[in-house]
Amino acid sequence: MNLKNISIAIDGPAGAGKSTIAKLIAKAIHFTYIDTGAMYRAITLKILQEHIDWKDEIQLKKLLDHTKIDIIQGNVFLDNRLVTEELRSPMINRCVSDVAKIPLIREKMVELQRKIASDKNVIMDGRDIGTTVLPNATYKFFVTASLEERAKRRYNELQEKGFPQSLEEVKLEIQQRDKIDSERKVSPLRKHEDAIFIDTTGMTVEEVIDKILSYIKIA
């Protein structure tokens, strides 16, 4: 296999552990990791900070034309400002799916994501990587877990960062995000017919990584 321009797409719902898994696999095989969810979170952060009405296409286009999003060594920079930690706040969690379903925003993000992947070996995770962003990806995976397990993972993550949310609140938010992500008109969350399905319920991160790596041949 040509070792240039190999692409790995990992899709799945909120709380499935996609980002953690993708980061560790990228490190293991020396690929560039692109957290597409963080890109949507970054634009959501800017919309909230600037009090933009995300239903106003004129305001949104102006915002997008004057927004720079970079991912450097796993850190997210919004207009040259480090925002990695801010992107996991409960407010962003509540709003990001509504922002991400807006066609104008998805078009811009997909354009940026494809550009990044055009000349690198990359691993991307998100909701529509295998179906829309990189439909010709070398490898496609759909990673999920039970609602209860995904809620516990997200709850523990929020507790570690000091965000006071109950487990039930987190579970309800994830249910709502699942509904929005799977029912949106543009690039809904779904498994590509070629994607390898992996249910991570009850699995450790190491077990999931080993399973995915067992499918990937780069030498």
UniProtKB/TrEMBL annotation:
Main location: cytoplasm
Residues holding ATP: G12, P13, A14, G15, A16, G17, K18, S19, T20
Single GO molecular function: dCMP kinase activity
Keyword set, alphabetical order: ATP-binding, Cytoplasm, Kinase, Nucleotide-binding, Transferase
Top-level taxon of the source organism: Bacteria
Catalytic activity reported: dCMP + ATP = dCDP + ADP; CMP + ATP = CDP + ADP
The keyword Transferase is annotated on this UniProt entry: yes
Gene Ontology CC: one annotated term: cytosol
Documented EC number(s): 2.7.4.25
Cytidylate kinase domain span: 8-217
Broad EC category: transferase
GO BP terms: nucleobase-containing small molecule interconversion; pyrimidine nucleotide metabolic process
InterPro entries for this protein: Cytidylate_kin, Cytidylate_kinase_dom, P-loop_NTPase
Presence of the UniProt keyword Cytoplasm in the record: yes
Subcellular location: Cytoplasm
Membership in a protein family: Belongs to the cytidylate kinase family. Type 1 subfamily.
PANTHER family reported in the protein's UniProt record: CYTIDYLATE KINASE, CYTIDYLATE KINASE/PANTOATE-BETA-ALANINE LIGASE
Protein's name according to its UniProt entry: Cytidylate kinase
Organism: Thermotalea metallivorans
Origin organism lineage: Bacteria, Bacillati, Bacillota, Clostridia, Peptostreptococcales
